[in-house]
Here is the input.
Amino acid sequence: MDIEQRMREVEREIISRRPEHSVDLALDRMAELVGLLGDPQRACPVIHITGTNGKTSTARMTDALLRSRGLRTGRFTSPHLVSIRERIVVDGAPVSAERFVEAYDEILPYVRLVDERHPAAMSFFEVLTGMAFAIFADTPVDVVVLEVGVGGRLDCTNVADGVVAVITPISIDHTRLLGGTVEEIAAEKAGIIKPGATAVLAQQPLAAAEVLLRYAVEMGATVAREGVEFGVLSREQAVGGQQLSLRGLRGTYEDIFLPLFGSYQAGNAACALAAVEAFAGVSDENVYGPAGLDPDLVREAFATVTSPGRLEVIRRSPTILIDAAHNPAGMAATVAAVEESFSFSPIVGVFAASGDKDVAGILAELEPLLDEVVVTRNSSERSMDPDETAELAAEIFGEDRVRSAPRLDDAIEAAVALADEAVAETGPGSGAVLITGSVITAGDRQAGNFRPSRQPASPPATRSPPPSCRERPRHSPGGKGDQAALRHRAGLRGHRHRARHPARDRPGARQPRPGRRHRRRPSRLRRADRRRGRPAADGLGPGGRDRPAAPGHRRRGGRPRHVRPRRHLRRPLGHWHLASPPPHPPPRRLLISPHVSRSAFAPRDPSDSELRSLQPYPPVAATTF
Here is the structure.
């Protein structure tokens, strides 16, 4: 059977199980499965990541930093944007379809055995988690970066014991499963902190911070807090991202280019850096020294980070941004990042969200940014009906600023048309479209659910090779040029050709004046060429400057000649096509004060005796209370 066909069958079988959003928070099924598989989650150390927002971006940054140190990594994140294989990544690349199918076939008998023993069958997410553990153990990898699905304490990924637990900012989300207050949600997410581990805590609301610290004390964990032990020292806007100065647990790292937008991504970078430092054991000065990680490796790793669907630019003129924000706190961070990093006016929104989310709260955060919004639905069965979304949006935006479309592609068409009207009035580059509301909405757009009505206009130019012979016209326009057909020569590269009238046929060449004959190579030299058995010199001949001649270009002694085309036959520097702007222009200076001054972990006089006794990071050994 064709592997692609088998891959589609496997994906259908997995998706047919209890869906990802139908969560039964319990560890018994997952614990039994990994027990049958031989506990693959214990094959290597784990960096466990939870939180409400920023988990996937932090996981990607952590993975990049670990790989820069020469470690083979496994990464498990959720949800995916386009392909289900994006969730299981080895050494920075999604697993192949062959390996995905093989892993599913390997664990399927054990999954069926667990299904028979429990009243509720294993879910979509539990099966994928088991597959990830099996793949990482079989590869094998040196370290696993593991993202929680929902919560933490009862999430199926919590069968693994993380040596480092990272908790990104916590806010209200998944209230049906985790509770309706920040304190209840923090208590669930604190469950990934294991005895003797290192807890890396991002900036948190004060109520969440106290819950996390209490739990870390109970577990005897070492705590590193953003804004106290590590953080962002300064941040500068740069084209294509931002320039950072980060303070880690054992050193300061300057001139870090992060190709992502928003202050929240800078905070994610600080957490990822602290997690890798803690994992590497840089707190032991006798072994690693006080300087921490190699600054050059840190810069190289951060410069390669990508986070698809997180304020990602996918088109220019008008600019289209996609963002996966799906709760009020995430949308507030997105709005702040757009206002800080871009200067578009107007901005038209395309919005589709799940019905079980705080849709009114998300729209309220989005309202100050958008001039108009087009509401629609995405491909999920949980997606809110466009008419219902339009009613909520009209209460917040006003009816004159709200439009509705039954399909996502129709909504994008309408938003692009509105932005184009603004571009026609104010000039190129002024309008933008923001597609947001859900990870599924961002994934639908990435998967290609968009039928543009016209060819998109394009951004600044870069150079590329000239077109091949199949892309060029077979005849020159008018007159004797009709006989000047280009002939592809075997033995040469695809963009090299032999031309009878090179002055006309060479791409970009100046056309001869009407009525004037093309200057030919003297007949005496052409006869000599024929005697020596090589092509006429009015063709491009060899591969280019200082390249060996093609077969047939030989001296009388039999050795290949190195020749250079005549001046009028040299290949032009290249044609211009449109692409993204250069990634590293000089950044615009925009320093901000350190995060310490705004942190929920800023030094204060705790009222609780246990909090008062909490020591800053290090020591390495767990603090005794």
About this structure: The chain has a mean pLDDT of 78. The longest helix spans residues 97-117. Residues 74 and 90 are 5 Å apart (CA to CA). The chain has 19 helices and 21 strands.
